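Database export, one record per block. Field names are fixed; values are copied verbatim from the stored entry.
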Amino acid sequence: MNRTPRTVLSLLLTTVLPLLSAETGWPEATAPTIKAGSFDELVINGRAVEVFQHGVRPEWGYKQPQQDTFIVVHPKTPRKNAPLYVVLHSAGHDVVSCLKCTRTVGNHDIYRSPDDHYALYLDCRANKGDWWWGGMHVGDAGLTQRNSGSETSPAEKRVMDTIKWVMAKYATDPNRVYLSGNSMGGSGTLGIGLRHGDVFAAIKANVPAGVEHASHRMGFPPQFIPATLKLPDPPVAVDYSAQNDSWSNGHDRFVKAMNDRKYALYFYWGPFGHANNHAAIEKVNDLINTFDWLSVKKNEAYPVFANASSNGKLPWPDDVKGKTTGQINAFFRWKNLTDAKGRLEMSLFLATPATVKTAFDIPKEASADVSLRRIQNTRFAPGQAFKWTFGSAHGEGKADASGLVTIPGLKITSEPTTLLVSQ
């Protein structure tokens, strides 16, 4: 039976509003409620849409009242324990115009969520100064002092509480929550996402408008993280940026900091400007969608590849007018085998021309320092000894001051090889 949008809204109000009264977190008067008549259709790409409006929680720290909107898009086919795809829009959009982009392939493709996921679209345009990039780019120098440092901003607190509210309300898979964004939203994706590895499995940033937000939130040099603050293992991060886009300046520092901290990064570049159309970007660098970031799970260990021999030479800061294309860590893959107490087994290998179609030459062998994060069943104390084998290679090592295990200089090929680490 076909239903009009008004009929669908009535059904949503009937089924959702009784649940809202039982929700906790926001004060009752400002808790998320269905916003009637706020979207011209209640179906998008064949998927049901709910539009919510809410006030603030005092602990977010806003200096004045806020009234924000967020939108939830349901999986096309109802399913239990669905993943959650979270979107942060660019400075040129609000939450409604962001969602409308998803009706057209090629229009800010990063906004379009998989049909079998729930999707959450957040807004930061309704309230002046509530940008989620932190205002740390040189183009926003006037906001630098106000938004610098490692402290969590009100906008970030709102974003994270809204995500957790949606996760609980729709019983989404807690191990498959993904954060994405374009431009300002890409900067927010890095700045907010990297700090919340306890929530996000992986994050993906399309031409992020500045890396300063992430650098401050993560304490990258010349900033630092207070010794009393322990960060969770960050999500696996994907970033694609263009050297001929001035918003990308500083990526040399960002890539180095990610490498030195042993944080997982898949990074792609080329002279594609501040683009958002994946087909157009892929004509310049066809690697941007070759890593399956939506298969990463928060409750599974993952490897970090650092100092890889297969990495390209970054065009920042000296060759931003050049036409080079390149990648960092683009060809490394893994598969978890065993994660038991005192023992972790993981298969490491390189992509091949059969699995990745690209104009780049895929190496047959690459060396990298491999660190292991999000190990589920074994904790290594700072300085604790461990043993490892990788094919015919073997050795011993000690966890670093944070308990991180790293095996230097592993030679990885297209042939899957098991890395075994034991206490």
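Remark 1: The first helix runs from residue 5 to 20.
Remark 2: The helical segments are 5-20, 95-101, 144-147, 154-170, 184-193, 212-218, 251-260, 278-282.
End of record.
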